[in-house]
Every structure is written in structure tokens, then in C-alpha cells.
Specification:
Layout (H helix, E strand, L loop, with lengths): L15 H22 L1 H9 L19 E2 H10 L16 E5 L3 E5 L8 H6 L7 E4 L8 H11 L3 E4 L5 H11 L3 E4 L1 H13 L4 H4 L4 E4 L6 H10 L3 E8 L4 E6 L6 E3 L3 E6 L13 E7 L10 E7 L1 E2 L11 E2 L4 E2 L3 E4 L2 E4 H9 L4 E9 L6 E8 L6 H16 L5 E4 L12 E3 L5
């Protein structure tokens, strides 16, 4: 059932003219500020001989190149710690998050309500007790989601990930009504509860679940809603530009654009903007916060959008499902694995001749396998596997589920080092 008239703020129901005027005005200010205060942004505009004053509308962004995660990683290596993208004095940085790369992401103000609209659209309100199962660690997800839950008036439980048995006990003891996490993790928690002899409908107070970090497939949504009676919602978030880009209302007909960003769907080869229904790369320019001088960040995600009216009354365009990736990066269990970054890890092990990372999804859970060819048969495989997994986790924040040592010649020279074999149903 649509929320109809129950909105977090007036931004959600702006007219098309109001939204265009608002976004263009904020974009113009953002570009001028970034050019003046962030050396990387200055270089970007100067290289293509574009003056900040020339960027007056969203269409004008086509004059500028796309910045990618690999550019951020390289920039921060050459010009630490922020690669020239910091656009406020260092002493004004309130928090620093770290995403795989590593990419250091400074936060200037926690007063910005990045995710609050998304949680509000999912129905979180005062009186709800919400368990947040995203990590309270280097990644920004845990603490930003926590604050957004509070912004909706609900009570947040700082749980973090892992320990499904403890998750079950906490949900029972505290009468948890809302879950925040990935679909696969909620399924794991439910299965653990059933193993412990509990019935979700009878023993738990859980009513709704909010997901991001991995795809909520139609089949899994059906399991949650039909089998367990939960209301489900999803959002699209990317850490580098700073948060939630689009969120789902109760209509489940796409994810509404967040008005804290300029979101383009572009041809990844040319950077030219595409129209409604056309499939291209999601490119983002944050306009909500002066911290980052990040302009036209290419997420690598492939999608499309529609600007048809939504029955819920929200007027922003809507992003369709994420259809795939345009680069050598894949998201595994909510974390990005970057091909270039992974290759550097394997290159540090002289015993390894060739490798391949394979991502599959049996039983609705992402599984990552390292296929490894060795230079010599005499290598201590157990010791190498332990060291490799430890090194990979320190860089990519994930461990392999399986490490397979395969005969020489198994991995073809032209095969990609990062292979995504997941089938989303």
C-alpha cells in the first residue's frame, strides 16, 4: 500500500520545475566550490578547458570527464591522503571512513540526513526498534545507517554483522521490529532462528526489512514477504560519493533519486547522458556536502531510469534495478572487489603463476573462490592459502570461501581475472 502524503520532507514532492531549478543551482555552487578548494577538481576542469561558470545545468556535466574508483585510488597514492579531492580545511573533517582501495573518505558534517528519507519511506518511525547489521568499522555504512534510523525517530541497535545466534537472541530479547542489512544475511538469521526452534511469525516482532549492499531478487523478496510476512524495501548506495543515491517506496516500482546528488545515466564509452529507459552507467555528483570535490563519479553500475509518475506521490525520477557492472569491479556480500587491487595482492606472492577470482551465488549467498596456478609443486599449499586469504582480507575486507589449486594451464591466458557467475532470480 502506498504511503500517500506521508513524506520525510518537502524535497520528495517538489514539482519538476522546482527540482530542476534546485539541482542546477546546487550543482553550480558545488562546481565553483570544488574548483576553488579541491586541487583535483581544478585539474579536471582545467584539462578540458572548462570554466566553473560554464557548468550551469545537469546537461553541462557532459563537458567533463568521468572519475572512477581507480582514479581515486591512484590519486590518493600520489597525493595522500585524499588525492586532492578534499574541499574543506583538514581540521574541519569530522570523521574519516575507509572503503576498499583503500579510499579515505572524509565527512564534514553528520547533520546531513543521507539515508533518513530511505528509512522513512520504508516505514521506520518512533516506537520501532531497528537492528542494524552493517559493520560499525571502517566502512561508513554502520554509523550512517544508525544515525538515519534515529532521524526517523526509531531506536537503533548497534549490532553489526556476523554471529547469527546472537542476532537471533537480540531480536527476541528486545522485540526488534525492523531489520537493516543484506538480504542474504537476513535469510541466514532466519534460518538460524528456525534451527534454534523458533517461528518467525509466532516468536518475533519483526515487521519490515530494509536492504542494500546486494541485490534483492524477486524470488527472495517473495520468500520474505509471502513466507515470512515481512514488508521489504531496498536502496541503492555507493560509499565514494557519500551515501544513499536512490531508495524504494512501498510501490516497489523502482528507486527514487535522492535530491542530494546529481544522478546521470550515461554511455560509459562517451560519457554522454541517456534518456528514460536507456541503459547506461550510473554517474554521480554529490551536491549535499562541500567536503568532497568529487565530480561525475562513475559507479560502474549499469541501470536505467524512468520519470513516469509514481503512485506514492514522490516526484523524483526512479532508478530501475542494477543490471550489472561496466568495469572490472564486482560487489561481493556488500563490499567491492576491484580487479586492479586484487591483482596487486596476488602479485605479492611469487609462488603464484596465475589466478582467477570466481564469484557464484549458490543458496542465495555470494561465494568467492580463488583459483590458483602455482609455479612449483613443492609449495606448502595450506600455508600459502592462509597467507593469501589474510593479505586479501587486509586489502579488500573479504576472505575467499574456497581456494582451489588447479593444474598449470587450467586458467586460459585470455580469461578475465575476475569472473562473476552469479545468476539473480
Amino acid at each position: 500500500m502506498a504511503i500517500k502524503g506521508d513524506y520525510f520532507d518537502g524535497f520528495e514532492v517538489m514539482s519538476a520545475w522546482e527540482r530542476e531549478h534546485y539541482l542546477n543551482r546546487r550543482l553550480s555552487r558545488t562546481i565553483k566550490h570544488a574548483y576553488k578548494h579541491a586541487s583535483a577538481a581544478t585539474d579536471i576542469l582545467d584539462k578540458v578547458r572548462v570554466e566553473p561558470a560554464e557548468i550551469k545545468t545537469i546537461k553541462d556535466l557532459e563537458k567533463l570527464p568521468i572519475t572512477r574508483k581507480a582514479d581515486l585510488i591512484e590519486g590518493q597514492e600520489k597525493n595522500p591522503p585524499y588525492g586532492g579531492f578534499l574541499a574543506v580545511p583538514p581540521q574541519d573533517v569530522e570523521r574519516i571512513f575507509i572503503s576498499p582501495g583503500p579510499v579515505y573518505e572524509p565527512l564534514h558534517s553528520s547533520r546531513i540526513k543521507w539515508f533518513a528519507r530511505a528509512f522513512y519511506a520504508a516505514g521506520f518511525r518512533k516506537g520501532d526498534i531497528v537492528i542494524n547489521t552493517f559493520t560499525y568499522h571502517m566502512s561508513p555504512t554502520g554509523i550512517l545507517f544508525h544515525e538515519a534510523i534515529k532521524d526517523c525517530g526509531a531506536t537503533a541497535i548497534a549490532m553489526g554483522t556476523g554471529h547469527t545466534k546472537i542476532q537471533v537472541k537480540t531480536m527476541l530479547d528486545l522485540g526488534v521490529t525492523g531489520f537493516v542489512g543484506t538480504p542474504s544475511f537476513l535469510l541466514a538469521v532466519i534460518k538460524k532462528a528456525e534451527e534454534m526452534g523458533h517461528d518467525l511469525g509466532e516468536d518475533f516482532s519483526l515487521k519490515r526489512a530494509w536492504f542494500t549492499g546486494e541485490m534483492l531478487t524477486p524470488s527472495l523478496r517473495e520468500v520474505f514477504e509471502q513466507q515470512y510476512g515481512l514488508l521489504t524495501f531496498q536502496a541503492y548506495a555507493v560509499t565514494e560519493p557519500g551515501g544513499c543515491l536512490a531508495y524504494e517506496c512501498s510501490e516497489h516500482k523502482g528507486m527514487h533519486f535522492m535530491d542530494d546528488y546529481i544522478i546521470e545515466i550515461v554511455d560509459p564509452r562517451t560519457g554522454q547522458q541517456l534518456g528514460p529507459g536507456e541503459v547506461g552507467e550510473v554517474v554521480v555528483t554529490p551536491i549535499h556536502n562541500k567536503t568532497w570535490g568529487l565530480i561525475r563519479f562513475g559507479t560502474g553500475d549499469i541501470s536505467s531510469y524512468t520519470n513516469e509518475p509514481c503512485p506514492c506521490g514522490r516526484t523524483a525520477a526512479r532508478l530501475t534495478a542494477i543490471l550489472g557492472r561496466s568495469d572490472d569491479t564486482v560487489k561481493v556480500r556488500g563490499m567491492f572487489v576491484v580487479g586492479r587491487q586484487a591483482s596487486q595482492v596476488f602479485a605479492d606472492f611469487t609462488e603464484i603463476d596465475r589466478f582467477q577470482i570466481v564469484i557464484e551465488r549458490p543458496a542465495r549467498r555470494d561465494e568467492m573462490t580463488f583459483r590458483v596456478e602455482l609455479k612449483e609443486k613443492t609449495v606448502n599449499r595450506d600455508k600459502l592459502a592462509t597467507s593469501l586469504n589474510k593479505s586479501f582480507q587486509s586489502v579488500c575486507l573479504l576472505r575467499a570461501d574456497t581456494i582451489e589449486f588447479v593444474p598449470p594451464g587450467t586458467i586460459g591466458k585470455k580469461e578475465k581475472p575476475l569472473v562473476d557467475r552469479r545468476i539473480w532470480r
